[in-house]
Give the backbone structure.
Amino acid sequence: MPPQQPARKIIAVEDFVPLSTPCVNRTAWTYVKECLDTAWVSSSGQFVNRFEKSVADYVGVKFGVATSNGTSAIHAALLAAGVGPDEEVIVSSLTFIASANAIRYTGAWPVFVDIEAKYWQMDSDKVKDFIVNGCLWKNGVLTNSITGRRVTAILPVHILGHPVDIDPIRALAEEYKIQLIEDAAESLGALYKGKKVGGLGRASCFSFNGNKIITCGGGGMVLTNDESLAKRARYLTTQAKDDEVENIHGEVGYNYRQTNIQAALGVAQMEVLPRYIEAKRRIAERYAAGLKGVKGIGLMQESPDAFSIFWLYTILIDSSVCGVDRRELWQDLASRGIETRPLWQPLHRSPAYATLFKLSCEVAEKIQAQALSLPSSVNLTESQQDRVIEAVREGVSLS
Ligand SMILES: *Cc1c(COP(=O)(O)O)cnc(C)c1O
């Protein structure tokens, strides 16, 4: 006789707890309806300007340039900052692949650096080690001594809602004359030493994809205090048009415009952003309280310098203590109707970047091997969350 299989529970649809779903507020209906009623549905209209102003004011920078998505925002920001073919851009190994892809779109190459173990963000010591020991600094030009390519920019990514410790990175960027562009796609509203992320470098990039804290369905934005960079980003994202009437284009641009419908959603979502951040932080607090003291589970941390928006609450599972690894726990939770997700494969290991010049990124590998993101929708109910907490506790104690 085959070994007895445990009875499979049937999960009712209403009992399914998703990882993260968008939450659409009432005013979004009003604003989107206005677009439909007036037929201002495409890539111009008052909501685009309003959304740009709203995000720029919120972050505390002068200019916002709305784009079709977060990836195009990073691409445009790098181009506008002057990054070009065969240069190199320093970026964290532990991030969503879009950060690196946008670097490649410019023709430049990513150099992946490791993260620190506590908050899982780009490690400024590793950046410094690469610049000081892995590069040549001569006549105001920084060159990777192995590849011979110029290093012209650094793209810190504030992952999972928590800011990068960016002061030491900014100091390096200034000393070695490289551009500091923030990928803040996951961290709108997070603070670093009391200042909003997105205003800490020469330019920054945001995403309003459906899985981010607020959404336009899809959308992005470049923010900057630098008027010429803003102008350049706008020019490049709107087909590099020199003359509206005669259709004269100065160079090869991009159609990275945002539509009025997307922006209408965005304007509505900006109105509830503070509430969504509170919700995310309350969810984080309840996970921390509910999972505290469970052997082998590492909780997400918040640096004393930081105000995190806890975009996706993520735990570490030490399989040598728990008896299950994150994959087994993930499967166990899935069988109970709870959706969780591992973090991204560290990019220095990605087949898409397999042949690149590589630095070792051991911390990124270790964290990724243990990390599991838990359900974190802003409308997650307390009873749903209690079920998740109970299921995690059971999952690691039954093993
Ligand atoms: C989501 C995300 C992006 C890309 O944004 P899209 O809107 O999906 O193109 C870039 N970087 C990071 C870190 C992200 O999480």
